[in-house]
Amino acid sequence: MKHRLRMEMKATLARMSAEEMGAAAESACARLTGLEEFAAADLVMLYWPIPGEVDCMPALFAAWEAGKTVLLPKVLWEEDRMIALAYRSPDEELTVGRYGIYEPADGSPWPIDEIDLIVAPALAYDRMGNRLGRGGGFYDRFLAQIEVGVETCGLAYDQQVVEELPTHSNDYPVDILVTDREVLRFRHRPADRQLDLFAKTAGKTPTGKEPQA
Question: What one-character-per-residue DSSP string does 27-51 give?
Fold first, then answer.
């Protein structure tokens, strides 16, 4: 089932023009950077986009401009896991890993419980926050480690959102889904996680309001 859905979503993405993707990515990033969770975050984990993923570079530059620390994922293939490394400026050297994915060259893994907001790509999301990755399971294993206070956010084109995805016990849903057309929020973990967000936003002025769908 998941294999078929992956093939169908890849075909859907292939039908989108570069112009469509560019405009949709700008809209999605505007919604992302307008989130109160983005404004409150000091440590934001983004990703280096590959074909078919929303280009999150506008959000990355917005994070730098706001003085946030930006993290990027790095896959340790021999250990079958993913870590988060700091990416502090566009002048910092990146390496090209498997499948042409750009990653920080080196550095110490950032403790996951210190990350405020993790933004994750996927091939598809459903309207309950479940994600369909590319089959490696690296994000699921990474997200399964998070503690209360770490917000997780999916970033996708509207065309990547379906009503329902098949799920397994090792699949990890996100708390928020941002697309070029809407922001969806879900409750997957204890409500006391919000206390951490309120503490972080106390005394801060958000950089913007969440766009309306």
Answer: HHHHHHHTSHHHHH-SEEE-----T
Helix, strand, or coil (residue 146): coil
21 located within any domain? yes
Euclidean distance between CA atoms 117 and 54, whole angstroms: 17
Given a contact cutoff of 8 angstroms between Cβ atoms, the answer to whether 72 and 57 are in contact is no
Position 209 in a domain = no
> CA-to-CA distance for 52 and 20, rounded, in angstroms?
12
**Residue 37: what are its φ and ψ, rounded to 5°?**
-65, -35
Task: Say how many CA atoms lie within 13 Å of 62 toward its Cβ.
Answer: 20
- Count of structural domains within the chain: 1
Residue 79: DSSP 8-state: G
In a domain, 206, yes or no: no
d(CA 34, CA 7): 32
- Mean pLDDT along residues 76-93: 92
The structure tokens 């917005």 sit at 62
CATH number of the domain residue 174 falls in: 3.40.50.10420
- Domain assignment present for residue 212? The answer is no
pLDDT, tens only, 112-166: 999 999 999 999 999 999 999 888 889 988 988 887 678 999 999 999 999 999 8
The domain containing residue 101 runs over which residues?
Answer: 2-201
Closest CA to 143 of 151, 80, 128: 151
- Which residues is 76 bridged to in the sheet? 81
